[in-house]
Specification:
It catalyses: N-terminal N-formyl-L-methionyl-[peptide] + H2O = N-terminal L-methionyl-[peptide] + formate. Keywords: Hydrolase, Iron, Metal-binding, Protein biosynthesis. Belongs to the polypeptide deformylase family. By secondary structure, the chain is α+β, with helices and mostly antiparallel strands. The chain has a single domain, classed as Peptide deformylase (Peptide Deformylase), CATH 3.90.45.10. Helices cover about 25% and strands about 25% of the residues. It has four helices and seven strands. The strands form two sheets. A five-stranded antiparallel β-sheet has the order 1-2-3-6-7. Strand 2 (about 70-80) and strand 3 form a beta hairpin. Bound molecules: [hydroxy(3-phenylpropyl)amino]methanol and nickel (II) ion. [hydroxy(3-phenylpropyl)amino]methanol binds near residues 60, 61, 62, 150 and 153. Nickel (II) ion binds near residues 110, 111, 112 and 157.
Length: about 180
Amino acid sequence: MLTMKDIVREGNPVLREVAEEVSLPASAEDKKILQDMLDFVINSQDPELAEKYELRAGVGVAAPQIGISKRMFAVHVTDEQDQLYSMGLFNPRIVSHSIEETHLEGGEGCLSVDRDVPGLVPRYSRITVKGTTLEGEEVSLRLRGLVAIVFQHELDHLNGIMFYDRIEGFKDKLKKELPHLKG
Ligand code: SB7
Ligand code: NI
């Protein structure tokens, strides 16, 4: 069973790597890892289990966050219409997206970031994601709202991107704080 001990934190270079494609059909080992990730996310939202195992509630987790640089993530999140998206995906990719952007009003957080980072994270309002489920089925998902935001957050982890990299003014702020940095 995965717990917070398995979650790597910022500063660990694995979070900055571009993760490798998973070779399909997925091996029994990769399926087991992804199923464990999905169970972890589900458990983290169960108040009793979360307290018992000291889990921080999360709506998703990406493989690099458990130190595995492979393109897979698990989500367990309910949209604004009460539809539950509970799945593990191998090699997920955005095949199209809206021009329009959105953001979560309160900003975002991350299981790999043990601090509050204020600021709005711009995300596409709508995306179409393709990928292969734990069951080996190729799916195409049209997403919007919170679920679209969560999928983009997890996809970013597969490309070494942290949510705060996208906060408006992040680079300007960094330059002000660390003026010796170029670019
Ligand atoms: C806020 C939180 C998340 C996604 C989008 C908005 C996920 C938090 C858990 N994770 O760190 C998963 O990578
Ligand atoms: Ni995260």
